Amino acid sequence: MPKRTREILELLPRLRRYALVLARNQADADDLLQEAFLRAHERRATLDPSRPARGWLMSILHNAFIDGKRSQRARSRREADFAAFIDMQVPAAQEVAVRLDQIRAAFFRLPAEQREVLHLIAIEEMSYADAAAFLHIPQGTLMSRLARARAALRAYEDGAIPPLRLVGGGDRHDG
For residues 74 and 48, what is the distance between their CA atoms, to the nearest angstrom? Predict the structure, then answer.
């Protein structure tokens, strides 16, 4: 076994103890030690062969610990900043389910032509031209149906459900 390898292996218990002092628990100390050895391997060209490896490795271990703490603080600040922007209240799952049922019911109250167009454009993400070709209708007709479907859902959201309008016939009012 090469002399330098033997020296590093003999330092392992000291490095592990120092990592434990820094990290304060065995799992984090092991992670820190692994990070330090990875850095040492990456920077092995900087090791002066005339000097003991102990100081070099302890320095790398210490710097890895400091870098990790800085990274944790920066991550904590980012998470705190993000948390300040989000609403900390989450609606109950029952309310979300009820709301989705209401929206689904409003969608299914739309005339079939409007539901079909809205589904192809909004859910299937088809282009207007592709959806019109798929339905064998002019693109203007598709856009008109889509606009009426969106307007009906917006009106539902605003609490004013518009009466259905039959093309080529009179208005039908639900009562």
Answer: 33
Concatenated DSSP letters for 4-64? HHHHHHHHHHHHHHHHHHHHSSHHHHHHHHHHHHHHHHHTGGGS-TTS-HHHHHHHHHHHH
Query: Scanning the structure block, which residue is given the tokens 């639900």?
Result: 174
What torsion do the CA atoms of 160, 164, 169, 173 make, to the nearest 10 degrees? -70
Identify which of 27, 25, 30, 36 has the alpha carbon closest to the alpha carbon of residue 66. 36
**DSSP-assigned letter for residue 159:** T
The two most distant CA atoms of the chain are separated, in Å, by 99
**Contact assessment for residue 24 and residue 7, using Cβ atoms and an 8 Å cutoff:** no
Contact present, 146 and 118 (Cβ < 8 Å): yes
Angstrom CA distances, 45 to 2, 8, 52, 56, 61, stand at 16, 15, 14, 12, 17
Low-confidence ranges of the chain (pLDDT < 70): 87-91, 160-175
> Tens digit of pLDDT for each residue in 95-140?
878 888 888 888 999 999 999 999 999 999 999 999 999 999 999 9
